[in-house]
Design a protein that fits this description.
- The complex is a heterodimer of chains A (360) and B (456).
- Chain A contains twelve helices and eight strands.
- Chain A has 360 residues and is an alpha/beta fold.
- Chain A has a six-stranded parallel β-sheet with strand order 2-1-3-4-8-7, with helices on both faces. Chain A has a two-stranded antiparallel sheet with strand order 5-6.
- In chain A, helix 2 runs antiparallel to helix 11 and helix 2 packs across helix 12.
- Chain B has three domains: 97 residues, Beta Barrel (OB fold (Dihydrolipoamide Acetyltransferase, E2P)); 184 residues, 3-Layer(aba) Sandwich (Rossmann fold), CATH 3.40.50; 127 residues, Rossmann fold (3-Layer(aba) Sandwich), CATH 3.40.50.920.
- In chain B, the strands form five sheets. A seven-stranded mixed β-sheet of chain B has the order 11-10-12-13-15-14-20, with helices on both faces. Chain B has a five-stranded mixed β-sheet with strand order 17-19-18-21-22, with helices on both faces. In chain B, strands 1-8-6-3 form a four-stranded antiparallel β-sheet, with no helix packed on it.
- In chain B, helix 1 packs parallel to helix 7, helix 3 runs parallel beside helix 4 and helix 10 crosses helix 11.
- About 9% of the residues of chain B have low confidence.
- Classes of the chains: A alpha/beta (360), B alpha/beta (456).
- At the A-B interface, helix 2 and helix 10 of A face strand 5, helix 3 and helix 12 of B.
- The structure holds thiamine diphosphate and magnesium ion (MG).
- Magnesium ion binds next to strand 5 of chain A.
- Thiamine diphosphate (TPP) sits at the interface of chains A and B.
């Protein structure tokens, strides 16, 4: 999914910020190109692997439970995109920074280390679910982790993320907001309204476009005049970064650069994370808009989990060690499914709770 | 260990499907991601993938089998640590474990024809042949006929062309009319509602599809400020003949943000026409009328009704009057006023009431703005009792509007208070049991009708 490096218009390329008024627009990308991959310790590498595998197995199980009728409504799986949430969120300052995303939100919750039981129980609509069974797959939140959901209207989370960033700045709490949205969402008008205000007000926000190639059945080139999404902040003087979202180490390295830039008070950064979704848009997608070969190609040659597995083996991990991890994760996911299946539905009285905070 | 492969639910509303084709046979080894079978729902053909690796054991449901309920065991798969692919005894349990958990049979896939009651619409000559057609097809046919008739009519929206419509209402239109007149837009509701409105001001006749009306919240500024007020603000110079259409109201377990009835919202806006049909005949006849109308129209459909079949008169040009209600069932004891999906529930309630000796008259408003006040008042004068059945919130509802109408203009005829029978006044919950508790149903309509008849 690599793209040609950004080409500059200027014939003679100045090399200082003073001489080049557009320096800020490409400096992050230039730094990223110099050193693309994060230098992870063995322990960190293993941690990334486990998190990504947990997301993959969890989502596969969710797909199964949907097929059994235990999960209803819309259910969007994150399979293939694991490296994005894991790489980015591993670089956050926990308890300080906030995250917001759309309806494809299970992976982002799991990347926080949130208990798979309460996520799965939300999917099955049970009292023990993280939203008491009242939100479902698309509407999950954990304010404890500063994870603000879980939104069903494409693009809405971008403006809400701008509000979260405003609060970080207002409270001077040193946090930043990570706002994820899709390649499809990137065409929503309110995204650009938010870009403008975030840049104008120097808000601490990192916009993350998860470019998985498709918005439901629409390929990027059928909906977007500028398909290099990382350039879309240029008009608002927001620097862009073009990142391989199928390599967790590249994602992590890019995240460090972007977050440092924002934390230093320089205003927003726009990151394009190039990734791929293996499954249908949601569970009810006939997938006639792309070939099986295209999907298989990504699975065989670009899989973020396989890539890391190879790296672990190169570093001396044995196949048996890796099998043992796989087994433990399968067991953990199976346990969450059992929990989600056996825990009770919400009490009828829950219908009337949480509508308002006070009583009037 | 052998794994049971069960008929999967492939969409929020799927209850059963056709096992179109097996792509594996008994004894084949499969890996995760391999396609096992093709399954047909009323919306699409989908591929059914293996999740575990193993060997295909017994195939229990042959290809070509129709109406296979979700959860039925369709084949066995032996795991990799299993040494024989022998099938265990066939499982009789058709529902399957988990089938009943959190899933009530929805009415989405009910396709048995419903006989249209005798109707007073003058446009339909007696003896006209009746075809049985789904609401989905009726809407599509209505649009296609108008597109053939008038070059200025075009359709735009998300996934309306190449995908054939997210709910397949625009199926086939791209093939017939080409990409100039059937236009896929990016997900930019505000932007394309504005472009559509501008095109209407410029003399075209756009049909703007919202994937669901929940997303038209993004575009409501153009619908109200741009489209509805243009004619008035320009002193009648600038017309805006546009149709905003799409599914409205609760679907099935899609949660609070995807389940809302916007009828009362739009019906409160002067300058708009608001139509919410129930059956196939009204869907087609009013769609055609909406496209021909010189005013902006908000045309509210319902996903759960798309797949239902009804009788539709076979006429060359089936156009129905906007602003006219329809008596769906005659009765003398109580009037049930409703629209959209509520009409089906009201007709069921009327049958139940009849068994208890109460004859209910059921009125389908069909158009919410302008409201057919006379139809309601005439029926009130006949039965002296009115209830309103509405799949939507009670507060500031169409039901509230009918109550006000009866108070203001029919007070002398009332023998009992007018009651609103609506959804619970909460955002729609996701959990199956809570969703059921929240939504309008037949039992509530029956209870309210008995109450105003003092028949408790
Ligand atoms: C405002 C709005 N319009 C349409 C939809 C229906 N819808 C849900 S997801 C989606 C595609 C979004 O694609 P993208 O932004 O690329 O995200 P991805 O699903 O690929 O993660 C659409 C059209 C919606 N939820 N909200
Ligand atoms: Mg996408």
């Amino acid at each position: 999914m690599a793209k040609p490096a950004r080409t500059r218009k200027a014939a003679a390329k100045p090399n200082t910020a003073q001489a080049d008024p557009d320096f800020v627009l490409h400096s992050l990308q230039a730094a990223h190109e110099k050193s693309r991959r994060y230098d992870a310790s063995d322990e960190e590498l293993m941690g990334f692997y486990e998190q990504m595998l947990l997301i993959r197995r969890f989502e596969e199980k969710a797909g199964q439970l949907y097929g059994l009728g235990l999960i209803g409504g819309f259910c969007h799986l994150y399979i293939g995109q694991e490296a994005v949430a894991v790489g980015l969120q591993s670089a956050l300052a926990e308890g300080k920074d906030s995250v917001i995303t759309g309806y494809r939100d299970h992976g982002h919750m799991l990347a926080y280390g949130i208990d798979p039981n309460v996520i799965m129980a939300e999917l099955t609509g049970r009292q023990a679910g993280i939203s008491k069974g009242k939100g479902g797959s698309m509407h999950m939140f954990s304010t404890e982790h500063k994870f603000y959901g879980g939104h069903g209207i494409v693009g809405a989370q971008v403006a809400l993320g701008g509000g979260l960033a405003l609060a970080h700045k207002y409270n001077e709490d040193g946090g930043l907001c990570l706002a994820y949205f899709g390649d499809g969402a990137a065409n929503q008008g309110q995204v650009y309204e938010t870009f403008n205000m975030a840049a104008l007000w120097n808000l601490p926000i990192v916009f993350v476009i998860e470019n998985n190639g498709y918005a439901m059945g629409t390929a990027v080139k059928r909906s977007s005049a500028e398909t290099e999404f990382y350039r879309r902040g240029t008009a608002f003087r927001i620097p862009g970064m073009d990142v391989n979202g199928m390599d967790v180490l590249e994602v992590r390295a890019a995240a460090e650069l972007a977050f440092a830039h924002v934390r230093a008070g320089n205003g927003p950064v726009l990151m394009e994370l190039n990734t791929y979704r293996y499954r249908g848009h949601s569970m009810s997608d006939p997938a006639k808009y792309r070939s099986r070969e295209e999907v298989q190609e990504q699975r065989d040659h670009n899989d973020p989990i396989e890539r890391l597995k190879k790296e672990l083996i190169e570093r001396g991990k044995s196949e048996d060690d890796i099998k043992a991890i796989d087994k433990a994760i399968r067991a953990r996911v199976a346990q969450s499914a059992d929990f989600a299946e056996t825990s009770p539905e919400p009490e009828p009285a829950e219908l009337y709770t949480d509508v308002l905070v006070g009583s009037y | 260990m052998a794994v049971e492969l069960k008929m999967p639910a492939l969409s929020p509303t799927m209850e059963e499907g056709t096992l179109a084709k097996w792509l594996v046979k008994e004894g084949d080894t499969v890996a995760p991601g391999d396609i096992l079978a093709e399954i047909e729902t009323d919306k699409a053909t989908m591929e059914f993938e293996a999740i575990d690796e193993g060997t295909v054991g017994k195939i229990m449901v042959a290809e070509g089998t129709e109406n296979v309920p979700v959860g039925t065991v369709i084949a066995m798969l032996s795991g990799d640590d299993d040494d024989s692919a022998a099938a265990p005894p066939p499982v009789e349990d058709v529902a399957g474990e988990g089938k009943d958990v959190g899933r009530e049979p929805s009415q989405a896939e009910v396709t048995k024809p419903v006989r249209a009651e005798p109707r007073a619409d003058p446009e339909i000559p007696h003896g006209t042949n009746m075809a049985t057609v789904t609401v989905r097809e009726a809407l599509r046919d209505g649009m296609a006929e108008e597109m053939r008739r008038d070059e200025r009519v075009f359709v735009m929206g998300e996934e309306v062309a190449e995908y054939q419509g997210a709910y397949k209402v625009t199926q086939g239109l791209l093939d017939e009319f080409g990409p100039k007149r059937v236009i896929d837009t990016p997900i930019t509701e505000y932007g394309f509602a504005g472009i559509g409105t501008g095109a209407a001001m410029g003399g075209l006749r756009p049909i703007v599809e919202f994937m669901t009306f929940n997303f038209a919240m993004q575009a409501i500024d153009h619908i109200i400020n741009s489209a509805a007020k243009t004619n008035y603000m320009s002193g009648g110079q600038m017309r805006c003949p546009i149709v905003f259409r799409g599914p409205n109201g609760a679907a099935s377990r899609v949660g609070a943000q995807h389940s809302q009835n916007y009828g009362p919202w739009y019906a409160s806006v002067p300058g708009l026409i608001v139509i919410a049909p129930y059956d196939s005949s009204d869907a087609k006849g009013l769609m055609k009328a909406a496209i021909r109308c010189d005013d902006p129209v908000v045309f509210l459909e319902n996903e759960l009704v798309y797949g239902r079949s009804f009788e539709l008169p076979e006429l060359d040009d089936h156009v129905l009057p906007i602003g006219k209600a329809r008596i769906m069932r005659e009765g003398s004891d109580v009037t049930i006023v409703s629209y959209s999906i509520g009409v089906g529930l009201s007709l069921e309630a009327a049958e139940e009431l009849a068994e208890q000796g109460i004859e209910a008259e059921v009125i389908d408003l069909r158009t919410l703005r302008p409201l057919d006040k006379q139809a309601v008042l005439d029926s009130l004068a006949k039965t002296n009792r009115v209830i309103v059945a509405e799949e939507g919130w009670p507060t500031c509802s169409i039901a509230s509007e009918i109550v006000a109408l009866c108070m203001e203009e029919g007070f002398d005829h009332l023998d009992a208070p007018v009651l609103r029978v609506c959804n619970e006044d909460v955002p729609l919950p996701y959990a199956a049991n809570l969703e059921k508790l929240a939504l309008l149903d037949t039992a509530r309509i029956v209870a309210a009708a008995k109450k105003v008849c003092y028949a408790e």
